[in-house]
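Lab notebook page, bench 4
Experiment: in silico fold of construct C2
Operator: M.H.
Input chain length: 360 residues
Purpose: comparison with the prior construct
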Amino acid sequence: MTDVNKLKTELTEIVAAANDLITLESARVQALGKKGKITALMKTLGGMDPEERKTTGAALNMLKDEIAELIATQERALKKQDLEQRLATETIDVSLPIRPESKGKIHPISHTMEELTAIFSSMGFSVAEGPDIEDDWHNFTALNFPPGHPAREMHDTFYLPDDPEEQGEAAKKLLRTHTSTVQIRAMQDKGAPIKIIVMGRTYRSDYDITHTPMFHQCEGLYIDKNVNMGHLKGCLMDFVRAYFEVDNLPVQFRPSFFPFTEPSAEMDIGCSRKDGGLKIGAGEDWLEILGCGMVHPNVIKNCGLDPDEYQGFAFGMGIERIAMLKYGIPDLRTFFESDVRWLDHYGFDPLDRPNRATGS
């Protein structure tokens, strides 16, 4: 047993001292090879008495396993070290030279989101984000959707398998049907006052010229102690006039209904459809642009705030829709078809960055 312990110490030091894969392989052969030290010691078992052979043999087998595991651990560490050194020192330029006949374009969705960020940030809004995969509570219950509401049905919502590690509504997973879920998370995390806009992908089971299963929304939320409908109206009037670049763009608010706001309204902007076209501005017609309203007290309460102390407004719009209206894009589906010819026509110069204030 003394020889086994001595050999273990010797081989452990040899393996630990191996600072590259070649040296480590040499240590492996020296320890475990056909002519290695453990093999050589095993060959002496035949000259021992039965009891000593049993004890020493077991100790040698254990030593063999320990040294093999030690070598494997050292090999993993050396390979990781080697990879890190190669990543730090070996570089290759995989970029192609500039092709003068071709120039990349910014997608209209990305450009519109930057426009919205520029406009609303000038009003004091900050950008908030949240997960695409949500639970039933954040997507529906917290937003005052009652049980049995049509929006909860399978034909509208993409449901995912339940999470076995969660209980109740938290276990029921789905792809978020609106970005309002981020409003709930932001109020829970940051409390009030809060003034945010949320932009991101949302998912609903629909597909035609004006609907796709995945689309983008922008929503705004402002919660404080003295927020009223007048603030909402002023905010949205400034927004549409800045976005569509029409200083005196007519607007109107029509009563509507949303579970998460009360009172609720649809906002229309003035337009003209003369000669079969569409021109935004003063005209005889109106065009629905977004939904809005004062945040329902139940929603404020669900986020842990006192609705007797805090109130606020919220609004939401489809990013593809407002991009289509501003830039004359006729079909929503073309946003997602990855056609470079379409992008070349409707895309934006990478240096054309929105930087616009509302004057409010």
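Observations: The chain is about 40% helix and 20% strand. The mean pLDDT is 87.
Next step: discuss at group meeting.
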